[in-house]
Amino acid sequence: xxxxxxxxxxxxxxxxxxxxxxxxxxxxxxxxxxxxxxxxxxxxxxxxxxxxxxxxxxxxxxxxxxxxxxxxxxxxxxxxxxxxxxxxxxxxxxxxxxxxxxxxxxxxxxxxxxxxxxxxxxxxxxxxxxxxxxxxxxxxxxxxxxxxxxxxxxxxxxxxxxxxxxxxxxxxxxxxxxxxxxxxxxxxxxxxxxxxxxxxxxxxxxxxxxxxxxxxxxxxxxxxxxxxxxxxxxxxxxxxxxxxxxxxxxxxxxx
Length: 255
Description:
This protein is α/β, with parallel strands linked by helices. The protein has one domain (3-245): Divalent-metal-dependent TIM barrel enzymes (TIM Barrel, Alpha-Beta Barrel), CATH 3.20.20. It has helices at residues 20-26, 42-51, 80-97, 114-131, 156-166, 177-183, 187-194, 219-228, 250-253, and strands at 3-7, 31-33, 55-60, 101-103, 137-140, 171-176, 198-203, 234-237. The protein has an 8-stranded parallel barrel, surrounded by 5 helices. Helix 2 (42-51) runs parallel beside helix 3 (80-97) and helix 3 packs parallel to helix 4 (114-131). The radius of gyration is 17 Å and the shape is globular. The relative contact order is 0.14.
């Protein structure tokens, strides 16, 4: 079975954020991810990881003003300077926590807008250039419009073609099984086709975004297929527990 990383933005929310690390380790996880660490001191997070024997699998670059509705800055030409500054905010957290993957959120926009597309490509190049000397991969993730209306990167074929076109060694695809099923379906075949460019996988049931195995997909079969395809990365558990985090972990114990 794959190596699972608990998403501490969605799971273990019964605990305060810094206490979720110990809770995840006690529940059997050896890795964690989350959306954003920036409200906390990087050394405090690093200490929680170390004390609990956890690997930091992934976190996101700063998204702009999340509370005001921003979901990334990369495709907005007017926020180019803020985007570059966000890289300098994120990298010290990556170095402190040992994270080797950072998710770059595109923000809202229209892929048919040439200026937005060029801004997005420029942002990706800048992030990859800054991260490469540290051995860090930059990931881009298509997100469905039901959960995030108007999101710029909302197509897996476009994302995979962009990774191929740009040809940057440390640019990878973040393959979220939940978003893939909602956007296009065809999860198994797409995993096989896109495996060479996948840098991280995430999972949640469809359509409820709850525990694996509670929706329309055979998640256990997908996990076995990931093994067969030789996937060596983490599978981030980016789901909302239906009735408590610990109560919902039977899916993992049953694998």
